[in-house]
Write a structure and sequence with these properties.
- By secondary structure, the protein is an alpha/beta fold.
- It has one domain: 3-Layer(aba) Sandwich (Rossmann fold), CATH 3.40.50.970.
- The chain contains 6 helices and 4 strands; from the N terminus they run H-E-H-E-H-E-H-H-E-H.
- A 4-stranded parallel beta sheet has the order 2-1-3-4.
- It is globular.
Length: 141
């Protein structure tokens, strides 16, 4: 499944959630996929900070559902957040990691997932609180 297609399906399920995502190509895609969510979308510029920021919002706003739309590059910069989520288990936080195996916004150098030896979904599955990794069929992002 392509990232935009996933965003479109996800957007149909959202109403008043807060959405945190990284700057880059995903911003334009998100604006097109979820125009009704523009006011409730926050953008994080630093790699490794999307999901931690979403966690902070989830902890501080327990009455709101928070959605983190992170990237493989961003998640690889701060894998420690997965341990924090595993310990804290925020009920109101949903994390999506787009894994295109590259740092797309800086020209496409490969991330650690590109060689197939690092699997973010498998790491997250070790949390025991994770709903389970979704692995798209070939051609997906």
């Amino acid at each position: 499944m392509k990232r935009y297609d996933c965003m479109t399906l996800l957007a149909k399920r959202l109403k008043d959630e807060l959405v945190i995502l990284s700057l880059g190509a995903s911003v334009d895609e998100w604006y097109n996929a979820a125009p009704h969510m523009r006011v409730a979308s926050l953008f994080q510029q630093q790699l490794g900070c999307v999901t931690p920021q979403a966690f902070g919002l989830a902890a501080g706003l327990p009455h709101r559902r928070i959605l983190s739309l992170d990237t493989d590059g961003g998640m690889m910069f701060n894998l420690g957040i997965l341990a924090t989520l595993g310990n804290e288990r925020p009920e109101n936080l949903f994390v999506v990691v787009w894994d295109n195996e590259q740092y797309q916004s800086i020209g496409g150098p490969p991330t650690h997932t590109a060689l197939g030896r690092v699997d973010i979904a498998a790491i997250a599955a070790g949390l025991r609180h994770c709903a389970g990794p979704y692995r798209p069929r070939s051609g997906g992002v």
